[in-house]
Amino acid sequence: MANTILHKADTRGHADHGWLNAHHTFSFASYYDPKRVHFGALRVLNDDIIDGEKGFGTHPHDNMEIITIPLTGELLHKDSMGNASTITNGEIQVMSAGTGIQHSEFNSGKTKTNLLQIWVFPKVKNVKPRYDQQKLNEADRKNKLQTILSPETGDGVVWIHQDAWFNLGAFDKDKSVSYNFNKTTSGVYAFVIKGSFNLSGQELNERDGFGIWDTDSFELTSLSDGAEILLMEVPMN
After folding, report:
1. What is the domain partition of the chain in residue ranges?
2. Which of 32, 43, 95, 178 would disulfide-bridge 66, Cβ 3.0–4.6 Å?
3. Residues near 39 by beta carbon (within 8 Å), at least 6 away in sequence
4. pLDDT tens string 48-82
5. Which CATH class is domain 138-235?
6. Could you report the per-residue pLDDT of 164-203, keeping only the tens digit for each?
7. Average pLDDT over residues 93-100
């Protein structure tokens, strides 16, 4: 029997800084819930809305795999490795902080940017810092799951120092798909970006989170047109 955990959208931590409206699925900054510190190797899932021409000044990270997925708008990234690039909706960015890195993130546009920032614990510490971004083909997730992150490099896929697999899906109503785990020791944390789904018998709505583990597969069915979901498979131990 699979183990599951449900995090409804309105139970997330929330911080409104004026220029930044942030929702935290897991404990982050001033939001702390001892029952919601992480899901396996998944440490942070932040749903951020950043005002135009605002952003995060230069700040440090180490020993964390940091993934950014813009949902709307754009984000200008600069780091201590000399990278300076803009990521937009339809792209994914990854940064292995490793031995230490400094970076800034700035909404260079005039309209709001909405992004997901995700942190995953690495399986090896103190690696050489690295940066990558990839353009995603939206057609590859129409009524199916598109792998956007894995432990190995590939076209349209970013890789991280962890046995993790991320998939995006965009579905018409009543479309179904089976998800088969890559590893029996993994769990999947699902995050509904838009619309509604039924995942293994649990109804999920926009911005709900749902973790499932101790199983090797599950069924996912869209309950609305234009529904979008992110599945994050990570080690549980």
Report:
1. 13-135, 138-235
2. 95
3. 5, 26, 187, 189, 211, 234
4. 999 999 999 999 999 999 999 999 999 999 989 99
5. mainly beta
6. 999 999 999 999 999 999 999 999 999 999 999 999 999 9
7. 96
Q: CA-CA distance, 222 to 220, in Å (whole number)?
A: 7
Q: How far is CA 49 from CA 4, 168, 190, in A?
A: 29, 20, 20
Rounded to two decimals, the pTM is: 0.97
Please classify residue 187 by burial: count the beta carbons closer than 10 Å to its beta carbon, then call 0-12 exposed, 13-18 middle and 19+ buried.
buried
Per DSSP bridges, beta strands 158-159 and 145-150 are parallel
The CATH T-level fold of domain 13-135 is: Jelly Rolls (2.60.120)
Among the listed residues 1, 6, 149, the one whose alpha carbon sits nearest the alpha carbon of residue 69: 149
Residue 139 has phi, psi (to 5 degrees) of -65, -25
Query: What residues are paired with 232 via a beta bridge?
Result: 166, 189
Cα 20 → chain centroid: 18
Asked if the domains 13-135 and 138-235 are classified in one and the same CATH topology, the answer is yes
90 sits in the region (left: phi over 0; alpha: psi -120 to 50; else beta) called left
* In contact, 191 and 166? CB cutoff 8 Å: no
